[in-house]
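Figure 6 in text form: structure in, sequence out.
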């Protein structure tokens, strides 16, 4: 397994493959069937420390804690939820007693969690991160990338829902 970016020739081949996939599978908006979905009910991540996670997502990022219950699948474990707008939630489990390793990007795993905020809230959160000395990466003047207390990458994006960097994605 290598741990380096693709060569320019490989990038060209990957772009050609992506173009072929787009041609084969991406239908014009007028030809797409309606989705079966209503949205993401919640995305569940794992927390090593419930209080630290609550303090980060609620107190630093401004997403209110809406529920804290026992995880029905694992006795003693907490399942807790944060309101991220539009009826959507980000949830967490702690799994006491399991010897889980640190966050890692793996196939089928989480690359990052992109949370939409208004431009005004984005600026206020950025100021709060600066005041708290939280490290982050500013990307394209609309995205802030940072790590949560367990290392999961979080993006705060101020583009409107359904857009990315001024382009429609839906």
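Output sequence:
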């Amino acid at each position: 397994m290598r741990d380096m970016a693709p060569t320019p020739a490989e990038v060209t081949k990957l772009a050609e493959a992506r173009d072929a996939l787009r041609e084969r599978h991406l239908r014009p908006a007028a030809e797409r069937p309606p989705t079966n979905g209503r949205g993401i009910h919640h995305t569940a991540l794992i927390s090593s420390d419930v209080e630290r996670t609550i303090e980060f997502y609620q107190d630093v990022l401004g997403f209110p804690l809406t529920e804290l219950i026992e995880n029905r699948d694992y006795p003693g474990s907490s399942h807790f939820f944060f309101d991220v707008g539009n009826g959507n939630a980000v949830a967490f489990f702690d799994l006491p007693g399991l010897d889980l390793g640190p966050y890692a990007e793996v196939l089928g795993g989480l690359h990052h969690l992109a949370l939409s905020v208004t431009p005004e809230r984005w600026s206020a959160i950025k100021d709060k991160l600066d005041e708290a000395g939280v490290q982050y990466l500013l990307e394209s003047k609309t995205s802030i990338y940072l790590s949560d207390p367990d290392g999961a990458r979080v993006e705060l994006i101020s583009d409107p829902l359904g857009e990315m960097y001024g382009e429609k994605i839906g």
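Caption detail: Residues 8-25 form the longest helix (18 residues).
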